[in-house]
Each structure stands twice: as C-alpha cells, then as structure tokens.
Design goal:
By secondary structure, this protein is mainly α. The chain has 9 helices and no strands. It has one domain.
C-alpha cells in the first residue's frame, strides 16, 4: 500500500486541477486520497498521538521561524521570480476569487499541514539523515500546481525548496520524536505563502 499511496495522492491532485479545474476539488480530493490510503493500511500506521507529540521546545521555535520565513521570502522575491502576470486570472479560473480565498486559506492552513505531516512523514517517512526518494515525491506533486504559473527556473527553485522542507520536517520528527513541531512549522509556512500570493496577486 505504501507504494500505491503517493500515486493516489498525485492522481487526486491531477483530477482536481486538470479535469475539474478546481482548487477546492484538487485540495479536497488530495486529502480524501491520503486519508483513504491511511485507512486502507490502518494496521501499519504510527499512532495518531504522534501529531501532538514533542520532546524539545527548541524544535517548535526553529520550525515556526523557518515556516514564517517561507511566505516572507516569497513576498520579498516576487518581482524576481518570473511569476505569470495573469496569475490572478488563472487562480480565478480554479475558483479562487476574492470571495473564496479567505475560506481556502483558513482550511488549507488548519487542516492540510496535519494530514500531510502524518501521511508523508509519519506514514511514508524514513529515519535516514540523508535525502530519500520520498522527499522528492513530496515535493513533486507541488509541480502540478506551479506548471504554467512560474518560469522553469522558478519551478526548479521552488521544488528544491520543497525537497529541503520535506527533508527538514522529516529530520524534525527524527530528532524530536513527534510531529507537533513539524506540523506547526508546516502550518505557518502554508499560511504565510498563501497570504503572500493573496496580497501580491489578488488584492
């Protein structure tokens, strides 16, 4: 099941984006696919308590700092990242209008990080200190969201940053023994990145 799980997640995002043309459809089907994979292999899951476990406060501080810098860096570097000038139009075509953005940001920030951390780091994770294939798999599905919206160089930079994020959150779990710090950092990264997109491309 672990080999099939990432394929289900990728397929769900692809269906939502390229068939339904819906950001909400992509996000909700992505979450449904991950939860379905976890349920089907429930006998091999780590305990749910892993999501609220932490041993060292410093890992929370470090993760919150790195998470907050994600959106700030995007906001500051926006003019040099060759992002599509019609990004707001593209996002509106996916259903992300001024009216729907706040709810999307709220749901994405509060729900997505915890499902992803349990799925990618808890269920599909590795205790290796080095980069592993799943770090690249985690980063890769984001490429579907970025293709056609950023230049090839920016896409490469974004995917490299996401590979690092996957590796770093996995190291946080390995060193801290729980997913709370990684989940909080992931949550702040999602929030600040979405706010940077909203205030730069939409407002």
């Amino acid at each position: 099941m672990k080999r099939l799980a990432p394929i289900l997640a990728y397929g769900a995002v692809a269906i939502g984006l390229f068939w339904a043309h819906s950001a909400w459809g992509a996000l909700l089907s992505f979450h449904a696919a991950m939860l379905c994979a976890l349920w089907l292999d429930r006998s091999n899951l780590p305990p749910l308590s892993l999501l609220v476990k932490r041993n060292y406060r410093r890992w929370i501080v470090v993760n919150l700092l790195i998470g907050s810098l994600s959106g700030l860096a995007l906001y500051m570097l926006w003019p040099w990242l060759n992002i599509a000038p019609d990004l707001s139009t593209q996002l509106e075509a996916l259903g992300l209008t001024r009216a729907t953005w706040p709810a999307f940001i709220l749901y994405f920030t509060l729900v997505n990080p915890w499902i992803e951390e349990f799925f990618w780091r808890g269920y599909l994770g590795s205790s290796s200190k080095w980069l592993v294939g799943m770090d690249f798999v985690f980063a890769g599905y984001h490429g579907m969201l970025l293709i056609g919206r950023v230049s090839p160089l920016t896409l490469l930079l974004a995917l490299s940053g996401l590979v690092f994020a996957g590796w770093f959150w996995r190291q946080t779990l390995r060193r801290d023994g729980g997913l709370l710090a990684a989940g909080l950092g992931h949550m702040l990264a999602d929030l600040t990145i979405l706010l940077a997109v909203y205030y730069t491309a939409i407002v």
